[in-house]
Design brief:
Length: 424
């Protein structure tokens, strides 16, 4: 959520920056400012009438003390009318505050000044690409055929059990999942992240806190009877650990990592891009989350990007780093870098990680602040998160790029976890 005072004092800047996200925000920003002014006016009038009522109450006491009962009764009638009017003002104020808050929740985060203009992923900026892009060979086959050949994943039985997008991992396929999860967690822990194991369902407050609600309401699985949502990413529960919290400044930065299953409806997805592991409704992912001081958040972002890059290097996967343009960046993000790995058999790039700085956008919603020792004032934190890493497309690229006549060669970092050098 953008800071209301900042919007009031920097209206044109907010409108200009949100235009980079292809959002025409003038109408909603002006409405927010008008409602905020109305709210302040109602509050001031309420306080004025309350002060008048308090003054009259003192007069009534004095009149009663001096025996002027008739005058005192007139004053009592006046306070009754004031109470009624104050109640009406409070009701109006609550309605205005609710409308104001709803509009603020609909306003996206402002993109960082470095975010390029653009309307779609075609306009994203490639900032790094490795030079070891593998060439497709005549006998190379895509991962959905490899998983069948080596009995790693059963997509058909997953459809029978649940539906499309819910694969069943078997044998070495299941072990590969576990190996990757362990590898990612261990590397994250070495980098200073504390492992947590969060719930897989969250309440609406958590969804609003990190910005999935109301923006992604239709893309989340909702359990109506319990008013709970299945998490689309561990970012949601892990960041919400600190909702309504004032953190000791000495604790910053806070760095957490978590493995979780993730659930996404992916409504509207269809075609060849959803084949195999390319797009799922349930998948595994390891996440990293940081909470930092505002002045250090972009330094933290750079560190997170380097860390995710190190994982792909250790997995021996060809990758590129992309800075998302305004039209492709998320509702909540100020700056996002995507990591994509090359899929040899499909001859295309697959996104496997997004690393983002949300600045104070999530923290404002979460009421997440910090205070240094000796300070009376609290300061809003900055929050960041990144996939470290999402498994499905990593698995797809590992299988496709490492296929050979003998089977599938495993990268060295996974051989210890798997207890073997090859899948065959």
């Amino acid at each position: 959520m953008l800071n209301l005072k900042f919007i009031q004092e920097n209206k044109e800047t907010v409108i200009e920056r949100l235009a980079v996200k292809n959002v025409d925000a003038r109408e909603i920003v002006e409405k927010i400012i008008a409602l905020d002014n109305q709210r302040k006016s109602l509050q001031q009038e309420t306080e004025t009438r309350q002060a008048k009522m308090n003054s009259i109450a003192k007069q009534i006491g004095q009149l009663m003390h001096s025996g002027q009962k008739e005058e005192a009764e007139k004053k009592r009638q006046e306070t009754t009318e004031l109470k009624t009017s104050i109640a009406e003002l409070n009701s109006q104020g609550n309605e205005v505050s609710t409308e104001l808050n709803n509009l603020l929740l609909r306003l996206p985060n402002m993109p960082h000044i470095s975010v390029p203009q653009g309307k779609s992923e075609a306009d994203n900026e490639i900032i790094k690409i490795v030079d070891n892009i593998p060439q497709k060979h005549e006998n190379d086959i895509p991962h959905w055929e490899l998983t069948k050949k080596y009995n790693l994943i059963d997509f058909e039985t997953g459809v029978k059990i649940t539906g499309a997008g819910f694969p069943l991992y078997k044998g070495l396929g299941a072990k590969l999942q576990r190996a990757l999860i362990n590898f990612f967690l261990e590397e994250n822990i070495k980098a200073g992240y504390q492992e947590v194991q969060p719930p897989l369902m969250v309440n609406a407050d958590s969804g609003y806190g990190t910005g999935q609600l109301p923006d992604k309401d239709g893309q989340m699985y909702y359990i109506q009877e319990d008013n709970l949502y299945l998490i689309p990413t561990a970012e949601v529960p892990v960041t919400n650990i600190y909702r309504d919290t004032i953190v000791d400044g000495d604790q910053l930065p806070i760095k957490n990592t978590a493995y979780s299953a993730c659930f996404r409806r992916e409504a509207g997805s269809y075609g060849k891009d959803v084949r195999g592991l390319n797009r799922l409704h349930q998948f595994d992912k390891v996440e990293i989350v940081q909470i930092t001081r505002p002045e250090l958040s972009y330094e933290a972002l750079e560190g997170m990007v380097k860390h995710v890059e190190s994982l792909l290097i250790k997995l021996e996967l060809p990758y590129r780093i992309v800075r998302l343009c305004g039209g492709d960046i998320s509702f909540t993000s100020a700056l996002t870098y995507d990591f994509e790995v090359y899929s040899k058999a499909q001859e295309k790039w697959l996104e496997v990680s997004s690393v983002s700085n949300f600045e104070e956008f999530q923290a404002n919603r979460l009421k997440l602040r910090f205070k240094d020792k000796g300070d009376k004032k609290t300061t809003t934190c900055h929050t960041l998160n990144g996939s470290s890493l999402a498994l499905p497309r990593i698995v797809a690229a590992l299988l496709e790029n490492n296929q050979c006549p003998e089977g599938i060669r495993l990268p060295k970092v996974l051989q210890e976890f798997m207890g073997r050098e090859m899948i065959n």
